[in-house]
Amino acid sequence: MLEQTQKITAHIPVNLLHEAQAVTGKGITETLKIALSQLARANAYEDLRKMRGKVKFSIDLEELRKDKKK
Question: What is the pTM (predicted TM-score) of this model?
Fold first, then answer.
């Protein structure tokens, strides 16, 4: 299934774009897709970090380790 896309015009500093393309080795569109994905992922990780210590788990890690060894 094809992803829905949106064509945009953006004013991006040329040196920043070229540096990002050099890192990815990809074209403009693919470089921007990678950057946006990484930004979304970083935001999701930050949300998880904020929840640290606030969620109670009733899982016994030792029991899980024993089950894994079987």
Answer: 0.71
